Amino acid sequence: MRLKLTVPNLLLTALTVALAGVANADIDPERQAELLYLLKHDCGSCHGMRLEGGLGPALKPERFRQWDTKTLAAAILYGRPGTPMPPWQPFITEPEAYWLAGQLKKGIRP
Ligand code: HEC
Asked: What pTM value is reported for the model?
């Protein structure tokens, strides 16, 4: 009886730990390359190939210094309703949006 209760609990704990690990995991290098391609070609179509601005504003680290990563990731995931900035949630995951936000804060030049 005791064992029956303990095993599922252990499994649940293991699963929770595994899922938390996935959420925090670094983005694998192949996906990083895809995200940078997206940044250049998709984001770049509005924000400029070098992210220096176009239809959308420049995506420069100076701009984002005061932004926390969460705010920046939310702008990417949910877009700006009522503007041409689309939500990217259908195409990238939350950890990927955080990763991209981190790249933008660092000042990536795709
Ligand atoms: C169809 C055009 C378009 C595409 C594609 C696009 N954006 Fe935007 N984006 C905009 C516009 C326009 C704004 C300004 C919205 C506003 O007026 O608040 C904006 C705003 C932003 C902002 C807020 C910037 C600020 O200074 O307030 C971020 C961050 C951003 N975009 C990131 C991205 C990223 C990352 C991608 C690619 C994954 C992307 N955008 C793709 C048009 C676009």
From this structure: 0.79
